[in-house]
Specification:
With 96 residues, this protein is mainly α. The protein is built from 3 helices and no strands.
Length: 96
């Protein structure tokens, strides 16, 4: 288990002290662990939402018969390369 040194500002330090005194957490370590766990869950939930939106868009495209059929691995590689070229060209265009 790693140990870290953190510096807390007065507001955060007071919050920690009040939370421990109130019995919400046994100590600073438990409180930091809970806070980081909540941040991790929030990040994972955001990632799941991005994946869900991408899957929905993909299924919607299939439902509208808006998709590309690729016959083999070579066609897939060529298609992905074309997407990359298009993305680079868009990124290189001046904004405006």
């Amino acid at each position: 288990m790693s140990e870290y040194r953190i510096v807390l500002g007065p507001d955060i330090e007071g919050f920690v002290e009040r939370s421990v005194r109130a019995g919400r957490f046994s100590d600073l370590s438990e409180m930091v662990h809970a806070g980081l766990g909540a941040l991790l869950e929030r990040d994972e939930a955001a990632h799941r939402e991005v994946l869900r939106a991408a899957a929905t868009a993909g299924f919607d495209a299939l439902d509208q018969d808006n998709h590309v059929e690729l016959g083999d691995e070579e066609a897939l590689v060529a298609h992905i390369a074309a997407i990359g070229r298009d993305a680079r060209a868009r990124a290189d265009r001046p904004a405006g």
